[in-house]
Amino acid sequence: MIGTKNSFLTHLLTNRPRARWIYPFFITTKTATTLLAGTEAAPSRIPIIITGDKDAVRILTHLTITLGSTLTNMGVRLSIAHKDHALSPQIEVNLPSRVFMGTGQRPHELPYPIILWENDTLLIDLRNFAAGSGNVWVTASGIAIQKASLSDKFRNDLVESSKITPIFLSTKVDINSNLFNKAFLGMQGVSVEKDIYVTRLLGISIDSGGSDGEVYVRPKTENYLCLDGVSSKDLLALGDYYHDYFPLKVDKHIGMEFEVENRTALTQTLHLIAEGLLMPGGDSYGRMGKPTPTRKTKAGLSLSC
Amino acid sequence: MLGTALDKVDERNKAYQLGVEINQPNQFLLPFPSAMREIISLLLPFSTPFFVSTQPSESVAGNTTKLVTLRIPSNVIFVWSKLIAQPSTSTMNLKISYPGLRRDFMRASIPSTIITGAGVRPYNLPCPTIFFPGADIGLEIANTGGTAITPNVTLVGQAIWINKLPERLKAKMLQEDIPLAYTYWYITDTFGITVTTTRTAYDMSIVREGDFIGEQFLVSYTSDFNLQCRDSNSRQIIDTGRASSIFGNGEYNPFLPYPLALHSGEHLTWDLWVDSATSTVYIVVAGIFIPAGLAGLYK
Questions:
Q1: Which of A8, A10, A13 is the best mutation test for B, with the most CBs of B within 10 A?
Q2: Which pLDDT tens digit goes with each residue over B195-218?
Q3: Of A95, A168, B33, B179, which residue is 20 to 30 A from A84 by alpha carbon distance?
């Protein structure tokens, strides 16, 4: 098994030191921010910016959302961008908030924490495509570490561990009634020096009536994930109910391809997101742990094992 | 060829390990002090699952309080880890105690929806809590409604069968002064707060002698409300939030992203307000209480 001894976060979360300089945090960007009614052509929009604290490093681990009044978690859609580096590639498609955000009772845990240094900003762009309107509250939570208490070693370890970043691949595809289509989770913007591991598939299909729909999805990869089409309601998790799969290493040049079948009488729009880790490749790969050890023979030769 | 294939598996292992160790700390790491974890893991081979429940006919009349005693068998050490109540009603309040050790697990009676779950989604205690053989568990059940209820409260955990324990381990485990942390539910000094549109501060005092490690924020309310939370060290824990985006409850009880360490004499201050009308609010911080003098034993 690979060691993670250089990881600051592993140390932090395994040993859980109890100290005044490290504590949980919850930031809600604004109270009572109103999102007005919109349409597909002209959505109502509010940008929400989460800014790093000048006194503390913030390790963002969870996201939740509360929608007030008549807002719906399928009508309110979001995209996320990080000003500097952490989210790459970022979520560019407007995803229904239900796919990506949790609640206080069931928060959505990011596939890997996002580290917000001082003045770092995370932009969550909310758009409302539906007729409802109301207040919206987005909460980011995680671990706060007071900067004054960070030793050089801790800071260096934290910088080092931030070389692993979360990855979000998202797409949207329309499928006409009783037809097939293809969906691709592309690799645009991904640094080729890094390896991509997908650990979760999330998403939802919305029918032309705006309701929770269903399509049959067959992921097509080099090694099959499944042999036949699986209902999107079974295959794809949601923001507050999700679990990790055994990680799939994705070819950074090809990405992931899906065959999608619509067996209903309505047009379906499939929103699809793959979450995972973007890890240092190449030489830096060894930094996280040594490769499989070799056995020495009496003659001094080594055998792969 | 085989080496290449194994390398690939190894790569996957690496990602998998990172995934589970870094990103899901509270699901996979046992959230209690290491000394406690070592003791309990040592006893696993001598344990079975164990359920301690109220009698099916136990009834509590409307607007009354009843003290029910659950007795642990004399050959069992009970390690309590989950709490279930059926039905979990908003009119049932619970106060749980261990009279033999003069220990209460909360200062006052707590609405059952905050600290009990159902069979499918039980409430997970932040810290396994030990009852010794023959112990009485005090269960004070208050029915705040006008109609009689028949509550079925179940404590779930593991039974360590002491007649199976090796002699040396048995002697050690039966010393009631062995260092034990236990679950404690801290509540705001004013409980059952009527929150109005006027922003008002309420304290939660850490008065017990020892260390407290907050692990879960839990709540019950009649309508969603806004809040801020800071501690007496000026740490801003919740920077203006919405209750439904932050709190769990008895059935859905996520652990905090990181434990909140507090010491006796410190306090949390909660600023609460609503946008309109009022809300009746119960706030609980569930965590691990480490009695004074024992802190050095825990990492």
A1: A13
A2: 999 999 999 998 887 888 899 999
A3: A95
Q: Is A10 helix (H, G, I), strand (E, B) or coil?
A: helix
With CA atoms as reference, report the closest residue to B215 among B239, B252, B183: B183
Nearest CB to B12; choose among A9, A68, A246:
A246
* Residues of chain A with C-beta less than 8 angstroms from the C-beta of B234: none
Q: Dig out the tokens for B265 from the structure.
A: 């004499």
Give the side-chain half-sphere CA count within 13 A for B67: 6
CB within 8 A of A206, min separation 6: which ones?
A74, A96, A212, A213, A268, A269, A271
Q: List CB contacts (< 8 A) between B246 and chain A.
A: 26, 28, 64, 104, 139, 141
What is the distance in angstroms between the Cα of B218 and the nearest Cα belonging to chain A?
9
Pairing of the two strands A91-96 and A76-82: antiparallel
Q: Could you tell me if B289 and B210 are in contact, meaning their C-beta atoms sit under 8 angstroms apart?
A: yes
Nearest CA to A33 among B64, B120, B181, B242? B242
Residue B27 CA to chain centroid, in angstroms?
15
Express each pLDDT in B110-166 by its tens digit.
999 999 999 889 999 988 888 999 999 999 999 999 999 988 999 999 998 988 888
Tokens representing B45?
């081979």
Name the average pLDDT for chain A. 79
DSSP bridge pairs for A134: A35
pLDDT > 60? residue A236: yes
Distance (Å, rounded) from C-alpha B133 to C-alpha B176?
Answer: 10
- The tokens 């696993």 sit on which residue? B44
Paired sense of beta strands A22-28 and B236-242, if any: parallel
Whole-complex ipTM: 0.83
Specify the pTM.
0.85
CA A49 from centre of chain: 17
CA gap B132, A132 in Å, rounded: 57
Residues of chain A contacting B299 with CB distance shorter than 8 Å = 15
Cβ atoms of B114 and B92 within 8 Å: the answer is no
For residue A11, how many other CB atoms are within 10 A of its CB? 16
Longest pairwise C-alpha distance within chain A: 77
CA angle centred on B259, ends B230 and B181, rounded to 5°: 115
Q: Tokens at residue A121, please?
A: 């900003």
- Name the minimum distance, in Å, from the CA of B25 to any CA of chain A: 6
